[in-house]
Amino acid sequence: SNSNIQPWRLVFAQGGRRDRLQEALLNLAKQQPNISPLPSAFQHYRQELGAQVYGAMGITRDDKANRQLAVLRNYEFFGAPMVAIVCMHQDLGVADALSVGMYLQTLVLCLTARGIGTCVEVSLADYPEIIRNELNIPPELLIICGLAVGYSDPDFPANHLHISRESVEKNVSFQGD
Questions:
Q1: Rounded CA gap, 70 and 68, in Å?
Q2: How confident is the model at residue 1 (pLDDT cuts 50, 70, 90)?
Q3: Which of 19, 48, 51, 54 is a good FRET partner for 161, with 20 to 30 A between their CA atoms?
Q4: Domains of the chain
């Protein structure tokens, strides 16, 4: 419960506000691509996911132009008419981020249950100043991620993927006497 502080803050954008945010993000992402680095022990996850997603779209590893176009879809919110920016106050910590994550997952599950598609977009957090400027988000709020909200395109190949997961045994240990 962590004192019931409810640390999540969401800012939703649609219509012209969403479109201006998209334009600003696309302009900067084209000029200054920014993919957050991962520690080397976790790089293979990104590579495996890329192979699955781009493979479903018919994009090979050597096809840099189409890979870049696919990456830019993040900043178009994958065509969704609404985007939410998920934030948390900068003075809060890991336990509070956990609460934000639980809230976000609950929101995603509720929207999915109502037939509304979502896509959590961590990549949006790589451009916090653009988002702050376009959506008037105060500096004390950390931008954690975005959430594209709309109806999924059933014909888009990547929407049919079943992304692999590690086995339970790799990530969970059960201990007892």
A1: 5
A2: low
A3: 19
A4: 14-31+43-163 (3.40.109.10)
| Apex 63 CA angle, 73 and 147, nearest 5 | 20
Is the pTM of the predicted complex or chain greater than 0.85? yes
DSSP letter, residue 32? S
Nearest alpha-carbon partner for 51 in 163, 165, 148: 163
> Is the alpha carbon torsion for 106, 108, 162, 122 positive or negative?
negative
| DSSP-derived 3-state class of residue 143 | strand
Contact (CB, 8 A) for 120 and 147:
yes
| pLDDT value at residue 2 | 77
What is the layout of strands, in order, in the sheet containing 9-14?
9-14, 82-89, 141-150, 117-121
CA dist., res. 23 & res. 28, Å (int): 9
The string over 87-102, giving b where at least 16 C-beta atoms fall within 10 Å of a residue's C-beta and e elsewhere, is bbeeeeeeebeebbbe
pLDDT (tens digit per residue) in 108-151: 999 999 999 999 999 999 999 999 999 999 999 999 999 999 99
